Amino acid sequence: MRFRQGGSRMGGLHFTRSALHRAYRGSVLGLAGIGLAACSGGVLDPLGPVGADGSKILINAAVIMLAIVIPTILLAFWIAWHFRASNRKAEYLPYWSYSGRIEAVVWSIPTLTVLFIAGEIWVGSHRLDPFRPLDSDLAPLEVQVVSLDWKWLFIYPQQRVASINHLVMPAGRPVHFSITSASVFNVFFVPQLGSMIYAMPGMVSQLHLQADNPAKTWGISAQFSGDGFSDMQFDVTSLASNDFDGWVAAARNGPTLDRTAYDGLLHQSHDVPPMTFGAVDPHLFHAVATQRIPPGPGPKPGAPPHAGREVTPAGKD
Amino acid sequence: MFGKLDWSAIPFSQPLPLITSFVLILIVIGLLILVTVKKWWPYLWHEWITSVDHKRIGVMYCLLGILMLIRGFADAIMMRTQQAVAIESAGYLTPEHYNQIFTAHGTIMILFGAMPLVLGFMNYLVPLQLGVRDVAFPTFNSVGFWLTASGALLVNVSLFIGEFARTGWLPYPPLSETTYTPGVGVDYYLWAVQISGIGTLITGINIVTTILKMRCRGMSYLRMPVFCWTALASCLLIVATFPILTAALAMLTLDRYADWNYFTNTAGGNPMMFVNLVWAWGHPEVYILVLPAFGIFSEIFSTFSGKPLFGYRSMVAATLFICIVSMLVWLHHFFTMGAGPAVNTFFGISSSIIAVGTGVKIYNWIFTMYGGRVRFEVPMLWSLGFIFTFIIGGLTGVLLAVPPADFLTHNSMFLVAHFHNVIVGGVVFALFAGLEYWFPKVFGFGLHPTWGKAAFWCAFVGFWVTFAPLYVLGLLGMTRRLQHINIPEWGPWLYVSLAGVGILILGVISQLTQLVVSIRDRDKLRDVTGDPWDGRSLEWATPSPPPFFNFAVMPNVEGEEAYWGIKLRAVETQQLAPEPKYEAIEMPLHSSVGFFTAFFTSVFGFAMVWHIWWMAILALVLAFAGFVVFAWRDKHEFEVPAEEVARVDRARRMAREAFLARLGEQGAVP
Asked: How far apart are the first and last CA of chain B?
């Protein structure tokens, strides 16, 4: 049921042309090669600007450090080998244990490396702040996300439709996610789109993502949330603008997500297939986030006294 | 009468835990029968269980740690197998079982495997390296050890009676609250960790006091071996941060037992508070483990290069730097909770700054080898393997400290690979190197080098084959703790990882074989000199194994590398220092209070888990009664007569004289 698109868009190709990067172009190409072979469909194969920026920072930081790390490892093994006890040609300096110059170099190499990284951290944290809206001519689409035991609910307040375990978004237009949880912690994560963020009860986190072109991918929860956690995976489809409108129109035929239907969703269930709702109470998300609708009840009460050993059957509940 | 406890607590319907518990119980019964038949009880009771000798307690800590490492490794085998077979299928472990296994794996490996080993090394070595006869509070030390053992016992009891937590090794609320996890698993976790945490705190207080107040004459702070410095930094962190863990777990306990609302979803509870508190302990905990590991490597690099440690003061500075900064980085465990760019920047930079201290250490180890005569003995192999593995682990660690990169890799298999990279490559490699290095000192005979080399190569290769694929899986978007896998493309990487576990199993077998072979050949591997590696710190001045009073006469230290100085002088003058005037020594009496208290504390923990209130109250009163009885003890020490001290030390001097004559012929010392 889970699908994804093989792609070859690589983070490695987004390199700026600074001298530093050129100097390590070899290792970049090496990384890109491994990446191409190994990472299609993952975070290094982004479908939108957030993922592209994030993976670029990931690779830049790795390259900055590899520039120090590789020579250091080679130096360590060369010194160990050259000064092996059996090599009597090597000088023996039994009392040599201090050199101010070497100390100065030794403290400054990691310090300088960390300075570079600190720059990446400073700039990257601000530019890729999940709460920061994306630069775009188009107004963002609003999507409200509720993590439930164990499925994802996506509410489209502007369209007044909703879906379970299937996120549909228009291609080329930013999407503003408001994310909360109706039970325990989860993390909303679509690897190919970029940044993840926690879904937490009683709190609303925000995230801005965009898919550049029509594509199919998947999302997952990145925070363990209980027995049904492994199936907290959802399909992600980005559609051309017309097709998105078509999807919304088709979704309107679905059942209504009222309080009764929502209470059903609050109960624990495993491996829930995607579905859509044709009408949604516009205040539902607010009521969930402020816990006016109480959070999910957890495992079914009333089972025979289980002496601490709760047994839930694997698979469907 | 028995609270929540009844027959349904025994996992009759689940063959795996049932068979495991059955086999374990048989082994324990077999051991008990063996000890009884061989009449070993008096020896065990007087020489080990009630011992307050820091060396005996250190050995028992290590033994506990090794047993728990094996238990945790068994969990790891099951996890990697499950993920490899559960690709688009259910696998052989249900979620409720698999979730217990990864929770137990993390809890056991960190708190009952690595921690006891690290504490054991500190217990054994710190007094010897400082030239003193025991730790500051010997009986308290025994209490600390037995409380840790009590926690480990509770974790393992949960295998057979009830269940263990299914929440991950740090039980984040609201999942760990009674609403979402009503079973006893989290309660087992809480009481086990709480009890062992108090034990750890006791040991921390003990070692800090020992180092600050009990060094021998001439052992100024800047003459202490680096291992003592790292032990001091590590124990300062224990004293500073374990109370945070105790408080956080106490609050969760009140939530679960008394319906309080510190971290609940409702009634104003704030689960993020728990996450902050638990990582305010959890991150320093990593450095509590890894700083002594750095100390072990420092000793090994210097000894096997035949040189003093390069940049000793720099090393001390870097250690204290890491000690302080490690308390300012905890938020990097949850950048993705949306703290905002300013907060994330602060914690991102503070986290990567730790790499400065670590980087300095790595370079200093490299320059320790420069100009040396490097001997590739087994401890040195582990140390070189560590340099490679730990540098890569540090690199991926700094990547995770960059918030936008963490947004892509948080809680993924990339993270899993990273922390195994630093904890296995840093801490576990150090512990194995240290076991190899100090084994002859502790038991009087060395470990078989060929099997040691086999163990190293299997562990090193096995480690990389197991964890390199996990980095790739993380970049492919695979998150941790999945009981089954819905994406078939991940399969090949999971198979490679499983093959790596196979190599690691060979490593464990080599290590156990090494122990058996070494015990069999102990006469051939005997260390008669007390200084098998040409060591440099004071523990090598004692015979192997050291007498229970460590030093017949308190040493007088006249420089860095205390023992190296003594040795050089002896070689130059071709004679030992003149025989001192031996005097009687006062040593602490053995005491059963540690064992007694921990026994009833275990009963208390068990009773609390199952809500058997009368038993809990009774056990708590009895555990406390142990202290009261101990407080009434009038006699605390016994005297070792001067003749006995002289007899032991003369034997040591004879061995040393023979050793010295041999050194003089070979000219081994420059």
From this structure: 73
The DSSP output letter for B412 is B
> Quick one: which of B459, B272, B291 has its CA closest to B382?
B459
pLDDT at A23: 46
Hey, are the CB atoms on B180 and A226 less than 8 Å from each other?
A: yes
Q: Which of A55, A187, A230 to mutate to test the interface with B (most CBs of B within 10 A)?
A: A230
Tell me the C-alpha distance between B600 and A158, whole Å: 62
3-state secondary structure of B558: coil
**Is the model's pLDDT at A248 over the cut of 80?**
yes
Instruction: Report the distance separating Cα B90 and Cα B87, nearest Å.
Output: 8
Of A62, A201, A312, the CB nearest to B96: A312
Closest CA to B432 of B386, B467, B389: B386
Report the mean per-residue pLDDT for chain B: 93
Beta bridge partners of A176: A142, A208
Residues paired with residue A187 on neighbouring β-strands, in sequence order: A198
Chain A interface, best mutation among B83, B99, B157, B175, by max A CB count within 10 A:
B175
With CA atoms as reference, the chain B residue closest to A221 would be B479
Flag if A106 and B314 touch (Cβ within 8 Å): yes
* Residue B598 φ/ψ, nearest 5 degrees: -65, -35
**CA–CA separation, B300 vs A97, rounded Å?**
15
Whether B464 shows a pLDDT value over 90: the answer reads yes
What's at A178, amino acid-wise? S
Gap between the Cα atoms of B170 and B579, Å rounded: 56
The token pair that represents B263 in the structure block: 């971290």
The rounded distance, in Å, linking the Cα atoms of B299 and B535 is 9
Q: Tens digits of per-residue pLDDT, B523-557?
A: 999 998 889 999 999 999 999 999 999 999 999 88
Burial label for B611, CB within 10 Å (0-12, 13-18, 19+), is middle
What are the C-alpha distances in Å from A313 to residues A199, B99, B648? 26, 14, 66
Query: Which residues on A lie below 8 Å from B345 (Cβ)?
Result: 121-122, 125-126
Closest to B477 (Cβ–Cβ): which among A65, A76, A220?
A220
Of B377, B522, B382, the closest CA to residue B443 belongs to B522
User: Cis ω on the peptide bond leading into residue B440 (within 30° of 0)?
Assistant: no
- Cα separation values, B237 from A36, A283, B232, B273, B381, Å: 43, 48, 9, 21, 29
d(CA B475, CA A12): 14
* Bridge partners of residue B479, in order along the sequence: B412
Alpha-carbon distance B349 to B355, whole Å? 10
Return the amino acid letter for B515: L
**B631: pLDDT confidence band, cut at 50, 70 and 90?**
confident
- A201 to chain B, any CB pair closer than 8 A? The answer is yes
- Token digits for A135? 């630069």
pLDDT at B267: 85
B263 contact residues in A (CB cutoff 8 A): none
First to last CA, chain A: 19
Distances (CA, A) of A201 to A210, A281, A312, B81, B202: 25, 20, 24, 34, 38
Secondary structure percentages of chain B, helix, strand, coil, to 5: 70, 5, 25
Residue partners of A106: CB distance under 8 A and separation at least 6 = B311, B314, B359, B360, B363, B364, B367
Token pair for B389: 């593995």
Distance CA B413, CA B531 (A): 44
| Angle subtended by helix axes B226-258 and B271-305, to nearest 10 | 160
The answer to pTM > 0.90 is yes
Contact yes or no for B299/B292 (Cβ under 8 A): no
pLDDT digits (tens, 9 = 90+) for B555-605: 988 888 889 988 888 888 888 888 889 999 999 999 999 999 999 999 999
